[in-house]
Amino acid sequence: MISIENLSYSYKPGEEAYLKDIDLHIREGEYIALVGANGCGKTTLTRHFNALLLPSRGEVIIDGLNSREVRHHAEIRRKVGMVFQNPENQIVGMSVEEDVAFGPGNLRLPSAEIRRRVGMALELVGLDGYEKRLPHTLSGGEKQLLALAGLLAMNPSYIVLDEATSSLDPYGRDKVLSILTRLIAENIAVVHVTHNMDEALQAKRVLLMCDGRVISDGPSHQVLGNSDLLKSKGLAPPLLVELTLRLQEAGYKARKPVVTIDEAVEEIKAWLSTSHLAKDEYEVRGASGYA
């Protein structure tokens, strides 16, 4: 696991800590969304996961390797891959297959193993058949998939996406998110930094940050269902949570936070079945676009 104990970090000695007293454990196979307003410390925290930043105080241990020890950095960065918002910053090859082969090549693996890994990674992200394509001819979504394939070829245990879907169109975003689900099934942990609360709902666990601290850590329905907390931190609740609030304003008290479509359907059915309004009135209102 990634084990973080009492982590604090200052960008300059003597300055107030940017990250403050963070304790956190991330296990293989977890799907975690990391959310919070701009400037809360999300990126700074994730850059501690693969030793791009080192703690001012506290410890970061990745599968037993302490990030403070320089001799561990190469292995830590193999274990923890990062996909950034702009994939072009991570593309180094002249062709798709050359780019994906760059990491395994630096590990001095046999040529046959490199080819196997390149093929596996490209197939997993849906870019098989693109081997000879020039990276600059790919779409934004395809470039993000290429960056992800380059990480997968390194056989990581953890992948961090730092706003990696924020610049993608809906199709590209859905493609990346569907691949994350497949990675979880392969026991690869995913930490997805996002401002999109509906994307965050797909994670099993959500971390909410504010002012350099993790202020809420729990199941997605628990953290993202707390609309008052989200709004107090400058975040818009997921659409389905907002639907619950609108129902409450109309006089209906939800039995629990609504965070999935199935939950929304069940709550609305329960509301309609107990409402004093006649069924035909609902039908009229529905036909007129009222409901």
Write a concise synopsis of the structure shown.
This protein is of the alpha/beta class and 291 residues long. The protein has twelve helices and ten strands. The radius of gyration is 22 Å and the shape is globular.
Which labels suit this protein?
291 residues, alpha/beta, Rossmann fold, 2 domains, 6-stranded mixed sheet, 4-stranded antiparallel sheet, 12 helices, disordered C terminus
Model description:
It is a single chain. Helix content is 40%, strand content 19%. The protein has twelve helices and ten strands. It is globular and about 70 Å long. Helix 3 crosses helix 4, helix 4 crosses helix 5 (140-152) and helix 5 (140-152) runs parallel beside helix 6. The chain is an alpha/beta fold and 291 residues long. The chain has two domains: 27-47 and 71-209 and 220-224, Rossmann fold (3-Layer(aba) Sandwich), CATH 3.40.50.300; 240-287, no CATH class. The strands form two sheets. A six-stranded mixed sheet has the order 6-7-8-3-9-10. Strands 2-1-4-5 form a four-stranded antiparallel sheet, with helices on one face.
